[in-house]
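Tokens as discussed.
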């Protein structure tokens, strides 16, 4: 088991390096750097001025060197201007050059400065990620029990009216994108046009003070879309288990249907849905982009849109690192949990 985890961690680190390097390469293409220079400097800057601006800040150095500096495994760049004043990546405002550290990258906790929000990227990510974490928590609280209940009820008696009704609901919820259901919910339940203005306030206020009125609609919009997929997987797994030989033997022995479901079928039926549930975390982190933008909920997804739309390179890189980290960690937890739930894999 320990060797399995070590191998998975090694693959995770290699995957994270490859993915972050790809994102770093794409965000550091010259057109993006040129936009950054003109945004920070002057829109009327000449090509020579743009080149000088980028060169003075280390943007024109070789890509592997820039990536190493961003990671914090290569010393940061330093420049000396005509007046003899020394500047550098690791020299912050009010710091003497002699006191500056040599390495100042992600590994040292230095994420850079946001050009849009004019604040430390680490502070922005921490605040916005906490807001999205609160949203994801309540989505999972609503989505997972509801989906498992729907899937188990549908799979207990395959082909029944209850099975067909719940399966239709699952397919319909999965086939309806968040931007469609979100707009419908806003129009019907939060607009004065229908006279059913049950949910008042804005989701923006829910970041600091979440209430049922301003927080339920974005939670329901995300949960409804993911609920159908988990329910269908649970239903398929439950159907397969209910036709197994040991279930038939239990029925022939006179075991009640409730005990068959609760004590024999349910645990085995939840092995496959467990993996699907764990994979919902990276989907939620990246899938909330639409919902947070639609409801103006200023979380991680909203920040990612702002960073991409305003060419905020440092913030965009930080968002990509967080997304990659969440995906890899949840996959590792999913693999470990699957091994514990399935004794056959653990023995093998």
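Sequence:
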């Amino acid at each position: 088991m320990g060797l399995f985890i070590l191998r998975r961690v090694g693959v995770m680190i290699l995957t994270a390096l490859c993915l972050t390097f790809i994102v770093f390469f794409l965000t550091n293409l010259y057109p993006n750097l040129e936009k950054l220079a003109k945004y920070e400097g002057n829109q009327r800057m000449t090509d020579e001025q743009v080149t000088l601006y980028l060169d003075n800040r280390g943007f024109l150095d070789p890509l592997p060197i820039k990536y190493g500096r961003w990671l914090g495994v290569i010393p940061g760049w330093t420049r000396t201007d005509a007046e003899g004043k020394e500047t550098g990546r690791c020299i912050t405002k009010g710091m003497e050059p002699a006191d500056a550290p040599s390495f100042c990258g992600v590994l040292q906790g230095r994420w850079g400065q946001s050009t849009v929000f004019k604040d430390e990227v680490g502070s922005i990510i921490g605040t916005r990620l906490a807001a999205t974490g609160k949203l994801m928590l309540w989505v999972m609280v609503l989505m997972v029990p509801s989906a498992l209940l729907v899937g188990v009820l549908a799979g207990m008696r395959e082909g029944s009216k209850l099975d067909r009704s719940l399966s239709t609901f699952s397919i319909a919820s999965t086939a309806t994108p968040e931007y469609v259901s979100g707009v419908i919910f806003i129009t019907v339940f939060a607009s004065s046009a229908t006279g059913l203005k049950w949910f008042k306030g804005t989701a923006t206020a829910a970041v600091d003070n979440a209430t049922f009125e301003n927080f339920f609609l974005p939670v329901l919009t995300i949960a409804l879309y993911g609920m159908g997929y988990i329910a269908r997987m649970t239903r398929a797994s439950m159907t397969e288990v209910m036709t197994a030989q040991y279930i038939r033997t239990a029925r022939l022995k006179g075991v009640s249907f409730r005990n068959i479901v609760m004590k024999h079928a349910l645990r085995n039926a939840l092995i496959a849905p467990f993996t699907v549930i764990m994979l919902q975390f990276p989907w939620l982190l990246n899938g909330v982009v639409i919902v947070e933008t639609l409801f103006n909920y200023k979380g991680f997804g909203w920040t990612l849109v702002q960073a991409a739309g305003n060419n905020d390179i440092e913030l965009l890189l930080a968002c990509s690192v967080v997304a990659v980290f969440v995906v890899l960690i949840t996959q590792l937890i999913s693999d470990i949990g699957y091994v514990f739930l399935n004794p056959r894999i653990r023995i093998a």
